[in-house]
């Protein structure tokens, strides 16, 4: 699957794909030595695992169950965007073992040699992954990462406040909702939405189109109450905004308690993504990281994670254990006609500087 392309129906064809992992071990032959053998102190087995993940993206009971089963203590910290993760890793050094970048961010970090190779013999549950997520373009051979969750970025809204169903990005910018809208504080996400609204590619690297999107956001500064760092769902739930540009699972999490909340994928198009659990090259606790990966890929643990997070699972063996309602919900597992208008983020390389510059302009204009 080319994750930089528009989504086609193939995304959900879990047709079997054979993954061939060739591991060549070329250990040099032992050289005889006249030196007396010295006693080597046994290396103490690590009992720690350091995970750096998105906010609201883990079930604490799963962490606790893993800690108890393996006698490993998990240090868990969070971030709010791919850009934040990338900045932290590039600034280095870090002592994290596992991080959770989205597809295009995996490709970027792979290019920066940030990841360490997985030993698949330590991850037998790798066989549970749905074929669609095997050998992705951003991580050929799943060398460094396993899929974590996947989802879409759309609009959560409170129907009591909007007074009607919303179906498009244009609806979001109806003057009636001025000052009642939050946008995700992530440049690629925010610009993708506006580029789609303006009829451009959400992965555009065309300066004129980006200028147009920047001008749109600046001229709608009063319409957007705030750019929220992965917290739009909280603002929506608290009634601080009526419309939130957000990740689907985060909106579904608040829907459970608030019957007035809806989620929609705009008619002009929207973004789809897969997040991945990746091993860092500098991971101090590689074996524990692989144990955790294997644990999450268990059918029932994988289902428990998605049932809790309300995101879609890339674990084929987990499907029978997923909540029936979620498995059949078009907002979580969109039908083909909706997938047809969804796009993956492309790794745009050095053109990301165009987005960074435009983003600084938008935030400064917004006083953020
Ligand atoms: N609160 C967890 C949100 C995870 C979203 N990850 C995907 C981001 C794609 N830009």
Automatic annotation (TrEMBL):
It holds the Pfam family SBP_bac_8. Its main location: periplasm. Coiled coil: none annotated. The keyword Signal applies. Keywords: Periplasm, Signal, Transport. GO terms for biological process: polyamine transport. One of its GO terms (cellular component) is periplasmic space. Spermidine binds at residue 104. This is Spermidine/putrescine ABC transporter substrate-binding protein.
